[in-house]
Amino acid sequence: MALVLGIETSCDETAVGIVNDRKLLANIISSSVDQHARFGGVVPEVASRAHLEAMQQVIKQALKDAKVSIKDIDAIAVTAGPGLIGALLVGISSASGLALALDKPLYGVNHLSAHIAADMLDNEKTLRRAIALLVSGGHSSILQINNLVKDVKVKGATIDDAAGEAFDKVARIMGLGFPGGPVIDSEAKNGNADKIIFPRGLSQNFDMQKHRYDFSFSGLKTAVLRYLEQTPNYKKADVAASFQEAVVDVLLTKSLAACQESGIDNLVIAGGVAANSRLRQLAIVRCQAAKVELSIPPANLCTDNGAMVAALGSLAINEGLAPSQLGISADSAAEISRVIF
Ligand code: KG4
Ligand code: ZN
Prior knowledge:
This protein has about 350 residues and is an alpha/beta fold. It is about 40% helix and about 20% strand. It is built from 11 helices and 10 strands. The strands form 2 sheets. Strands 3-2-1-4-5 form a 5-stranded mixed β-sheet, sandwiched between helices. Strands 8-7-6-9-10 form a 5-stranded mixed β-sheet. Strand 1 and strand 2 form a beta hairpin. Helix 6 crosses helix 9. The model has no long low-confidence stretch (mean pLDDT about 95). 5'-O-[(R)-(carboxyoxy)(hydroxy)phosphoryl]adenosine binds next to helix 5 and helix 6. Zinc ion binds next to helix 4.
């Protein structure tokens, strides 16, 4: 049983989580999203500075919530990539300083694997083979998880925009604000998802040979733009619902095909887009029909947080992996295969 403090700073959330083995004790998030909203996307320099300003307070609050002292912490985990380089470096510096001062091991972890590790908090699930649909602002992949900390294979990925990026871009062209996922999710609740049939990228027969488990969302974004230009008095809620349906449909169709074709009857959905209410709802229906067991972390653990980083650190310890060297650097484009740095 190890008490692990996890630090996440890969984008605009300064987040610290504390876990005791698999039990979640604290999950504090300070977001700089309001400072980026007027730019319609995250400004890296602004994010880095905000991490620096928020870090101490977020750590203190997490320790307070967990009712533990910093001296009780057995290991420090930190996101080392992928993400914004300057933002990652603030987290790594803070984590390295703590590890050095406390003389405790440091685990630099992969942000993408950490999203999936969030699924292991507060339950008894074992590390088992699964297909994972990882959908965030920067990534959209179908993975075969043989062992989350030791053996992950990429089956497919987006060839252009990530799913979350598509939500953000479409929200921007519709004037709904940033980040786009949550606003489209809520707008779509009042809309008709069958009103407009938007394209499902890379789903035609000829695409399926080469891109069976790959995604493409840029054509969908253009289709939404064209629809808005050509349709006077369109209803925002219908566009949001129909766009969301196109994304969710293709994500689930390809993930379930991956389950069936690899003979794996577990699907884990993780990453910020996994907070989407329609994705969560339709996943339950489709997985039941396909007799596939579905796991999705609670919505607040799908978007970036420190608890998922602590969870992955804790799994690494339990699996006997060696800690990172002090002095690790950030890898802004880290592949999922690089789990511990
Ligand atoms: O994993 P995450 O918090 O950060 C990255 O690692 O990128 O994912 C952020 C992305 C954003 O693009 C955001 O719009 C999207 O997740 N997102 C959602 C929802 N909540 C966040 N997308 C759809 N529906 C949501 N409810
Ligand atoms: Zn993320």
